[in-house]
Amino acid sequence: MILVNENYSLLQSSYLFAEIARRIREYESTNPPRKIIRMGIGDVTEPLPSACIEAMHRAVDEMASRDTFRGYGPEQGYAFLREAIAENDFRARGADIAPDEIFVSDGAKCDTANIQELFARDIRIAIPDPVYPVYVDTNVMAGRAGPATDGRYAGLVYLDSTAANGFVPAPPAEPVDLVYLCFPNNPTGATATREQLAAWVAYARANKALILFDAAYEAFIRDDATPHSIYEIPGARECAIEFRSFSKTAGFTGTRCAFTVVPKECRAFTAAGEAVPLHPLWMRRHTTKFNGVSYPVQRAAEAIYTPEGKAQVKSLIDFYLGNAAIVRDAMSRLGYEATGGANSPYIWVRTGMDSWKFFDKALRECQVVVTPGAGFGRSGEGYVRISAFNSRANVEEAMARLSATR
Amino acid sequence: MILVNENYSLLQSSYLFAEIARRIREYESTNPPRKIIRMGIGDVTEPLPSACIEAMHRAVDEMASRDTFRGYGPEQGYAFLREAIAENDFRARGADIAPDEIFVSDGAKCDTANIQELFARDIRIAIPDPVYPVYVDTNVMAGRAGPATDGRYAGLVYLDSTAANGFVPAPPAEPVDLVYLCFPNNPTGATATREQLAAWVAYARANKALILFDAAYEAFIRDDATPHSIYEIPGARECAIEFRSFSKTAGFTGTRCAFTVVPKECRAFTAAGEAVPLHPLWMRRHTTKFNGVSYPVQRAAEAIYTPEGKAQVKSLIDFYLGNAAIVRDAMSRLGYEATGGANSPYIWVRTGMDSWKFFDKALRECQVVVTPGAGFGRSGEGYVRISAFNSRANVEEAMARLSATR
Hints:
Mean pLDDT of chain A: 96
CATH superfamily of the largest domain in chain A: Type I PLP-dependent aspartate aminotransferase-like (Major domain)
Number of helices of chain A: 12
Oligomer: homodimer
Number of strands of chain A: 17
Low-confidence stretches of chain A: none
Shape of chain A: globular
Distance between the termini of chain A: 58 Å
CATH class of the largest domain in chain A: Alpha Beta
Structural class of chain A: alpha/beta
């Protein structure tokens, strides 16, 4: 008899964004008075940079001719892309990362979901709250979280990210084995200082723990003092894996390209206490379960690192950061506490009510979609996330409409 | 202390194709007398059909303009592609599969690797031998295979595919829970008849087992009597998941698109014996750990189903099948037993010696790369797989060179 993985029955409700989509569909079926503006899901709205478009066209043409056609590529990505990443994203910032420590993939969602496969089942995991739901759900599926009570899993250690700690939790007093961190943060928009990250690296080294550092929003950092990579912190190479994405950097949410960095020194341990390097394990996992990113997509990603590509990406991010400033200022003027949005596309807004209630109010009274903070965890209750990914006109219209919530 | 998944230490040697690549590199460094012809790895060589190229260019242009730009798509694939698949690959052949039972992905390798996550750890798995290594390795990583002795894992049931059964194993006498089948087969090139598949479906229903049916080479079937899909067999909808790929169908090995079919009736069971539908579980897995296939790639795949696309794909497969016939005939004339190659791009050749020895001999004496059968399992010992994916000139030259092995 084929037995199912019963851990799936421990998953709570449906995936956040599916529930949001369902409520929108239901409301739309009642013929709302005007077009709904979606400030909820973190999906980009602006076209791909022209450098990427041109590179992709050229690569598609290569696929049309026998002499230049590309079949299977290296599972970990073509050298042309990994070298551009190592040079521009790491070495140029003083972080010592080699091209063969970079694994190109089709998404940071996939990578942050898959990485837990490298670890034993009985590890102790710390998860920030609020948090991107994928970190939790993938560990529930793997049987590491145990049963849930009041929205929290018995087997996880929660790191509350609240106004009291500026939405940057400090390392816990108790030892944990695996820690998920995300800066600039989704959903709160908070960034971590060098000192805060250094405290986490020191904690990981002292406890033989591992940090999974999700830097998908790195491109939004404009403050010179804020680290872009965990590898700007000495000692991080042995205790941190970093995830990056082109989704928000260059509008690749529908084009699909990302990468994960596993330094050669990065280690876990056997039950007998012997250190095991994670680089060959991730290589084995990546080459066994993945077959590389589409060649034209890798060429499009490479184009981000050309002079034209860099200028276009900067201008794209500038545009979204401009939106973010408008949102933050507008919500503040309405009397809401609003944080984030300075080095991040997300603004975290304290609503003064249940967050799904505010979601429904904004949808029904303003025809504006926001993301309920409670969907990201218990500490998100009372907040909503507003995304800066939209046209300027939509952002301005949405902010005008939301004044009706006051 | 972060504990590693120690199951990885049970994996045997490196991935087959990595070992082949290593031996080729080593030989190449000795300056071989002429260019090496690669008849080993199953990678296509001909350009993408022009219908796909044109569709991809149009989609890239859509990504260049705000009005037509696409961000995140549905994780399970756009309706335009799932509808074309359901209609052309299934309904047109009398197999009742709906678009919402199709999950578009970036590769059948990924899907056949990931599917085991839906099942409990303590299930009994039957694996053909020889076999595509991914089925075994992913279950080793998940802790289901136990230790290996003499190349076989204690926890797996092996189904020998030998000349005696025409390389199509019958269901075993003992009950198993999960069965991997692949027809047309990689590596043997064998196909299964309707009666053989019906016996497997009857076995699965009688034993409450599940069949994972890998049909990545379906497009090579030209014999009218051979089923293209397991769903042509009555009763399969409740006990089979099918995997398809555009990699070999339309040259997408470097472009990346595939799909998995999970019928609504398809079930597994709780330990208490309650039936659980697998469709919502795979949906949850797919939406949690995957973010959809690149939009231009999905448009390229859709173009396969246009009248021009169908004609171009047929001509592409005709070309490779022409190569396959040349290989099979040439090896037969040299006195080797050679099977497959009729409804398959692979020819399975009995070498009369250790298969890695034949690999080395063909490489060093003929500068031709073949795939050692032993790399696919114990029953592959003594055989090599020759692939039809090459130019006509290379195929003819390789066959002329291999006469030196006699």
